[in-house]
Specification:
Elements: E1 2-6, H1 19-30, H2 35-43, E2 45-50, H3 54-64, H4 80-87, E3 97-108, E4 113-117, H5 125-139, E5 143-149, E6 152-157, H6 159-165, H7 175-178, H8 193-208, H9 211-218, E7 226-230, E8 247-250, H10 254-263, E9 267-268, E10 286-290, H11 295-299, H12 303-326, E11 332-338, E12 342-349
Parallel strand pairs: 1-10, 1-11, 8-9, 8-10
Antiparallel strand pairs: 2-12, 3-4, 3-6, 3-7, 5-6, 11-12
Helix pairs in contact: 2-12, 3-10, 4-10
Length: 369
């Protein structure tokens, strides 16, 4: 069995400008003692690839194992809307475009508006449904917003307005890429960018005046200022449920579950511990485990939470996986840290663990310069 752990933020580069943040990050890494991870990094075979988001990296890997000979996928746009529907067992109409439209809070700093997704604070299904109803009363039928979960929404764009929005030329960025970043630097781009910016401003005004947000503001909870549009691409033609390597996916992420469903591969909720996914005896096959708990703390500069979650990963995943590799219950373990600066991949087999001459080094040794 070949297990691949996808862990964005495992070996991070500073995400905010200034020497102070870089120094704080290095101090947080220096304070970590993770023996299992350190051994995997020292004994495994490391390769570096161009930077990409987790979503793009997963899509590229799925294409690489596809039996269909097709051109490369779009380097910019993602089919996040249609995959979100696939995650709940639905298929998008071929003539209708779907985008993700995730609710966000905008934190006012001195010179910027920092994007904070609703996944980082309490936001109920009741509140989400009420805000979606407000949006649909105003924008439907041209735009119809739909609830997937409190923190994840999609929007359907009717065919008659698609050409005026120039969707084929629209470029958006995944919400994961803009968490903690300045809103103005990551807005949609393309020939109709000004229209999309106006639409986002209209949404902000509509939501700000809503009673749900009034109640949230009164009790000191983050207000839902708007939605983040991203991922309008159609499902790539190469995605098929026919043939290819069968992989079991473990993740709670909507995009990941949708990709597995579209590929016709098994997917399960992410367990808290590796023991729930490891076989008791050697077996064939592949598994992708998406451990996406580090990206958001890094993005908002919460290094204390990032430090704690690294320790949890060591206890619940790295140490059990290393032991399973030693016992030959699994044949190979791959760790992948996809990020926008670079992608790091570490492959380790049981034979690699015997390379005792490769000295174990602290985690700071593996950080990007």
């Amino acid at each position: 069995m070949h297990y691949t752990l996808w862990i964005p933020g495992l070996l991070p580069a500073p995400m905010h400008p200034g020497e102070q943040h870089a120094r704080a990050l290095r101090d947080a890494v220096t304070a970590l003692r993770l023996p299992a991870l350190e051994q995997l990094l020292a004994r495994g075979r490391t390769t570096h690839r161009p930077g990409a988001s987790l979503e793009h990296a997963l899509l590229h890997q799925a294409q690489a194992t596809s039996p269909t000979d097709t051109p490369n996928i779009d380097a910019d746009e993602l089919p996040a809307g249609v995959l979100s529907l696939a995650a709940i067992g639905e298929t998008a109409d071929a003539h209708t475009h779907w985008l993700r439209a995730d609710p966000v809070h905008l934190k006012v700093n001195r010179d910027t508006l920092q994007v904070i997704p609703a996944t980082l604070f309490d936001f109920s299904a009741t509140e989400a449904h009420a805000l979606i109803q407000t949006l649909n009363q105003h924008f439907s039928p041209a735009l119809t917003f739909r609830f997937i979960s409190p923190q994840h929404w999609v929007v359907r764009i009717q065919p008659e307005v698609q050409s005026s929005l120039a969707l084929t030329q629209l470029r958006t960025q995944p919400l994961s890429a803009v968490v903690g970043q300045d809103l103005q630097s990551h807005l949609p781009s393309g020939p109709t960018a000004k229209h999309w910016h106006s639409l986002m401003n209209e949404l902000q005004m509509l939501l700000y005046a809503d009673a749900i947000n009034d109640a949230r503001e009164q009790r000191g909870a983050p207000v839902i200022h708007g939605v983040w549009f991203w991922g309008h691409a159609p499902l790539p033609a190469w995605i098929s449920t026919d043939g290819g390597t069968r992989t079991h996916w473990y993740s709670d992420d909507l995009f990941v579950c949708g990709l597995a469903a579209a590929l016709g591969e098994a997917h399960s909720a992410l367990p808290q511990h590796a023991a729930r996914v490891l076989p008791s005896q050697p077996t064939a096959g592949r598994a992708n485990v998406v451990l996406d708990t580090l990206r958001h703390p890094l993005a908002i500069g919460d290094l204390h939470i990032w430090h704690e979650r690294m320790q949890q990963l060591e206890r619940d995943w790295f140490a059990p996986m290393l032991e399973a590799l030693r016992r030959e219950h699994i044949g190979m373990l791959t760790l992948i840290d996809p990020n926008h600066t670079r992608q790091v991949q570490i492959e380790t087999t049981r034979q690699d663990l015997r390379r005792f001459w490769r000295r174990i080094k602290p985690l700071t040794h593996y950080l990007p310069n």
